[in-house]
Amino acid sequence: MDIISDGPTLVLHGDFDVRSTWQVRAAIYERLDSYDDDVVLDMTDVATIDATALRLLAVATRHAWLTGHHLTVRNPGPAVRRMAHLTHLAHAIEVERVAATA
């Protein structure tokens, strides 16, 4: 898992699974503690995700909310959305809304 930081935005590349949750967790909580802005997790280049990683996102989303912030997931791919629904965690993760084009 590669993480690129662009201010309050974290861009993830690779497989987001139990092996990388500690790394992503540390990056998310560091951003939540360091910035007054909301944190965005860009998952455009995340190929796969497992239940442990989704639980991390759900807990971090709740933590952000409790501390007056938002953690928003941007561009989750089909595999990420499918796993979120299978694990019943889709409702616990805030996904960025994209305006539909006509």
Low-confidence stretches: none
Secondary structure tally, helices: 3
Strand order of the largest sheet: 1-2-3-4-5
CATH architecture: 2-Layer Sandwich
State the end-to-end distance: 35 Å
Q: What is the H-and-E element order?
A: EEHEHEHE
Q: Tell me, what is the CATH class?
A: Alpha Beta
What percentage of amino acids are in beta strands? 25-35%
Question: Given the C-alpha coordinates, what overall shape results?
Answer: globular
Query: Could you give the count of β-strands?
Result: 5
Average pLDDT, all residues: 92
> Helicity range of the residues?
25-40%
What does this structure look like?
- It is a single chain.
- This protein is of the alpha/beta class and 102 residues long.
- It has a single domain (2-95), classed as STAS domain (Transcription Regulator spoIIAA, 2-Layer Sandwich).
- Helices cover 38% and strands 29% of the residues.
- It has three helices and five strands, in the order ββαβαβαβ.
- The protein has helices at 21-34, 51-66, 78-86; strands at residues 2-6, 9-16, 39-49, 71-74, 94-95.
- A five-stranded mixed sheet has the order 1-2-3-4-5.
- Helix 1 (21-34) links the parallel strand 2 and strand 3.
- Helix 1 (21-34) packs parallel to helix 2.
- The protein is globular.
- The model has no long low-confidence stretch (mean pLDDT 92).
Overview in brief:
The chain is α/β, with parallel strands linked by helices and 102 residues long. Helices cover 38% and strands 29% of the residues. It has helices at 21-34, 51-66, 78-86; strands at 2-6, 9-16, 39-49, 71-74, 94-95.
